[in-house]
UniProtKB/TrEMBL annotation:
Protein name: Amidinotransferase
InterPro entries assigned: Amdntrnsf_FN0238
Species annotation: Pseudogulbenkiania ferrooxidans EGD-HP2
SUPFAM superfamilies xrefs: Pentein (SSF55909)
Pfam families tied to this protein: DDAH_eukar (PF19420)
Top-level taxon in the UniProt lineage: Bacteria
Length: 309
């Protein structure tokens, strides 16, 4: 099952540009007013939830807490992935303040509606300096059982081996860099894989053999490759996610900035394939350095027939 109609989102309590992640995230900018950053991010978050629900996506919203201060809690897909066999994988995070995003009460809230049978905690890898930030570091092709991973300080071969043992996905490693030559910190910034389409910034993959191999792997899996350039990448056009509505209809979730960066032909292709859920998340993208895909943790867990109180 490549897509799901159930997602988790964390409503921010004290959002701001995280000073502990700026070294590896070239997409982040600093804010001048923390209160204004939180106010704007909260409004953008709520509008995004409304857009997803209007398209038929089921959104489980859990509120962040004021303490401990977790400025990036709005990006839960980095510490958690939830799989169809009832398993949750919990990931090692590079920034110390991001490690506090991992909350048992969030897992408990998920478990009330979904059959969460086992949590596999990979966070101890942090003690040895190995970080692997969930579906930020990995872009899953669930149908082909492949995990696409670009090399960065936030991806680890050792952790990827553990993920492979747990869920059996084969890794496809490659290098990707921004136009300044800096490694792209998360794979999901430069590519997205859906049922039939794969949006990818091939320009960011400097090694010609890796670039050809990446395209070949996607096409072998039956994907039509939608190639985006650096300008579109910088507008988070690679950071989109295909979901499904509760009625089975496909849904593409992406920011308004990302949508505006696409060509008319690319917009037409996406619109012909799916409903479009547009997120007005300029503040979150500018200060958090993450986009529409980063804000969503997909829930592939089986639903409980009788939700718990």
């Amino acid at each position: 099952m490549q897509t799901t109609s159930d997602v988790l989102m964390i409503r921010p309590a004290r959002f701001l540009s995280n000073p502990q992640t700026t070294a590896s995230n070239a997409f982040q900018n600093r804010e001048r007013d923390a209160a204004e950053a939180q106010r704007a991010a909260l409004a953008e978050f709520d509008a995004y939830v409304d857009a997803l629900r209007t398209c038929g996506v089921n959104v489980l919203v859990v509120d962040d807490t004021h303490e401990p201060h977790t400025p990036d809690s709005i990006f839960p897909n980095n510490w958690l992935s939830l799989h169809a066999d009832g398993r949750a994988l919990i990931y090692p995070m590079e920034a110390e303040n991001r490690r506090q995003e991992r909350r048992q009460d969030i897992l408990d809230a998920i478990g009330k509606q979904f059959d969460l049978r086992r949590a596999v905690d990979l966070s101890p890898f942090e003690r040895d300096g190995h970080y692997h930030e969930g579906t930020g570091s990995m872009v899953f092709d669930h149908s082909a059982r492949v995990a696409y991973v670009c090399r960065s300080t936030r991806s680890s071969e050792r952790v990827m081996e553990a993920v492979e043992r747990e869920i059996g996905y084969q890794p496809f490693w490659f290098g990707a860099a921004d136009r300044a030559g800096k490694p792209i910190f998360h794979t999901n910034v430069m590519m997205s894989v859906g049922r039939a389409l794969a949006v990818v910034c091939l320009e960011s993959v400097a090694n010609a053999n890796e670039r050809r191999g990446l395209r070949h792997s996607l096409e072998q899996a039956g994907k039509r490759v939608v190639d985006i350039g650096y300008r579109q990448l910088e507008c988070f056009a690679g950071n989109m996610l295909e979901l499904s509505a509760s009625d089975g209809a496909p849904v593409f979730a992406l920011s308004r900035q990302a949508w505006a960066a696409l060509t008319a032909e690319q917009q037409g292709l996406l619109s012909s394939e799916a409903r479009i859920a547009l997120a007005p998340i300029d503040t979150i993208e500018r200060l958090g350095g993450g986009g529409a895909r980063c804000m969503v943790a997909e829930i592939f867990l089986p639903r409980r027939t009788s939700p718990q109180p």
